């Protein structure tokens, strides 16, 4: 009996060891690399050298479309392809939850939409959409137009050369301050911009909080911005209470004015601040990059530039002098928006995104362990010949019939329930800016076509162009 008991006791650790080995074989192939750093520096180097797509392709050739690595301090599984996109945006159910890298979470706050799941995600997303949906945005076209015209008068008019990307970032920041915060031009807006630019530099960084690191600078800038936003929120809350302001005048006022059936505020103050920061980053960086790359495309593609100009001039000539753009005018800019969509296909502002496995997940024959980070790459399906024939050719006609594009293969704004709530805001912002740029100016590139990612695309010299004033033909 004692011999049998001893044998069983000896057998248990062996069985556990075998089981562990069996399970470990099911984890995707690859290496986690050096603790904390992992493959983060390699990916960041590839992005800055504009070879990130090649970096991903080499991994998939070596390990397949599912592989393990370590990014920004966490064990990660890289998923690649149309099936992976579908799994991320629709098939994951409750097994995949929102979670960004530690750097993004700490900089933007843990109650922003990218960190929320389930009922919290639905509640906060619905609140944001109430302001950002087309029905609401119609009344803000004129306000956006005023910011664009003022920007061109201040920074383009009378100039021979301009750096497009820095100027587009200035424009989108001013639009955000005007429409989302109701923050007037002046010292406070300028202080906001300085801290904001420092904050976004460390969004994708190794989360080592030591002096002189990008991450540390971004954290400190984030703290300053949150303090400024808290002051703005308190001021607007008081104005709404005293009924000297409307809850539709800007995004902060809108969110403060939203209450549920029990007359309880839908979003907490912390959630409002963290999501305002998220919308700031999304509306500032992505839109400025898209507009910059459309300008780059129009300089490189004369036939496409002529077609965009023709569409915009027809709209301009159909209106009495000085009459502002309307929502109906934007709906006529079909070709211009197809150019924007093709620009997003070839030069997506977002290279990839992150999620977290809420439980052990079986995917494509592998185990994604609970708590691991999931990294998916936006741009890869955009350049697959089987989905977009001759993918290196810039061809806006691909988007004449979007129903013909396979689901989950074109995802610059996400998909399914995770579709970016700021999609319509970005569309309006882009079309208004392009309308006035092409009808007022013509340009040619003074710099090469190279761009790096940091983490968004940054053209060399900020896309330096030579500009001329154009007269409406």
UniProtKB/TrEMBL annotation:
Localisation: Membrane
GO biological process: sterol metabolic process
Signal peptide: 1-24
GO MF, one example: iron ion binding
Domain of life of the organism encoding this protein: Eukaryota
Alphabetical list of Pfam families matching this protein: p450
Cofactor or coenzyme needed: heme
Principal location listed in the UniProt entry: membrane
GO terms for cellular component: membrane
Topology of the protein relative to the lipid bilayer: Single-pass membrane protein
InterPro entries: Cyt_P450, Cyt_P450_CS, Cyt_P450_E_grp-I, Cyt_P450_sf
Entry binding sites for heme: 420
PROSITE patterns xref list: CYTOCHROME_P450
Entry annotated with the keyword Acyltransferase: no
CDD domains: CYP90-like
Entry keywords, A to Z: Heme, Iron, Membrane, Metal-binding, Monooxygenase, Oxidoreductase, Signal, Transmembrane, Transmembrane helix
PANTHER family given in the database record: CYTOCHROME P450, CYTOCHROME P450 26
Family to which the UniProt record says this protein belongs: Belongs to the cytochrome P450 family.
Name of the featured protein: Cytochrome P450
Species assigned in the record: Clitoria ternatea
């Amino acid at each position: 009996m004692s011999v049998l008991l001893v044998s069983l006791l000896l057998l248990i650790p062996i069985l556990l060891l075998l089981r562990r080995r069996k399970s470990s074989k099911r984890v995707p192939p690859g290496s986690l690399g050096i603790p904390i750093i992992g493959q983060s520096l390699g990916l960041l180097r590839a992005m800055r050298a504009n070879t990130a797509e090649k970096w991903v392709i080499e991994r998939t050739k070596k390990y397949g479309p599912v592989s393990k690595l370590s990014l920004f301090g966490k064990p990660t599984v890289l998923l690649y392809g149309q099936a992976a996109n579908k799994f991320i945006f629709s098939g994951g159910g409750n097994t995949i939850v929102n979670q960004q890298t530690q750097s993004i979470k700490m900089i933007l706050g843990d109650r922003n939409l990218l960190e929320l799941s389930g009922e919290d995600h639905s509640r906060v997303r619905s609140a944001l959409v109430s302001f950002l949906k087309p029905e609401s945005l119609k009344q803000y076209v004129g306000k956006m137009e005023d910011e664009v015209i003022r920007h061109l008068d201040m920074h383009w008019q009378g100039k021979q050369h301009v750096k497009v990307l820095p100027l587009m970032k200035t424009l989108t920041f001013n639009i955000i301050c005007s429409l989302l915060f109701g923050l007037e031009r002046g010292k406070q807006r300028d202080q906001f911009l300085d801290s904001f630019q420092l904050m976004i530099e460390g969004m994708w960084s190794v989360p080592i909080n030591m002096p002189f690191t990008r991450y540390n600078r971004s954290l400190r800038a984030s703290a300053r911005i949150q303090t400024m936003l808290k002051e703005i929120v308190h001021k607007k809350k008081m104005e709404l209470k005293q009924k000297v302001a409307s809850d539709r005048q800007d995004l902060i006022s809108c969110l403060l004015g939203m209450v549920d059936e029990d007359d309880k505020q839908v979003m907490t103050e912390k959630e409002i601040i963290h999501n305002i920061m998220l919308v700031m980053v999304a509306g500032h960086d992505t839109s400025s990059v898209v507009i910059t790359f459309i300008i780059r495309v129009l300089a490189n593609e004369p036939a496409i530039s002529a077609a965009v100009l023709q569409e915009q001039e027809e709209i301009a000539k159909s209106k009495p002098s000085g009459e502002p753009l309307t929502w109906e005018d934007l709906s006529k800019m079909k070709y211009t928006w197809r150019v924007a969509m093709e620009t997003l296909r070839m030069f997506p502002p977002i290279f990839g995104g992150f999620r977290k496995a809420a439980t052990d997940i079986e995917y494509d024959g592998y185990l994604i362990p609970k708590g691991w980070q999931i990294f998916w790459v936006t741009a890869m399906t955009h350049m697959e010949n089987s989905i977009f024939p001759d993918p290196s050719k810039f061809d806006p006609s691909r988007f004449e019939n979007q129903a013909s594009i396979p689901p989950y293969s074109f995802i610059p704004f996400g998909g399914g329930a995770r579709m970016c709530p700021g999609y319509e805001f970005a569309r309006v912002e882009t079309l208004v800016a392009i309308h006035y740029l092409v009808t007022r100016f013509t340009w040619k590139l003074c710099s090469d076509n190279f761009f790096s990612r940091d983490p968004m695309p940054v053209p060399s010299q900020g896309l330096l162009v030579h500009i001329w004033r154009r007269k409406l033909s």
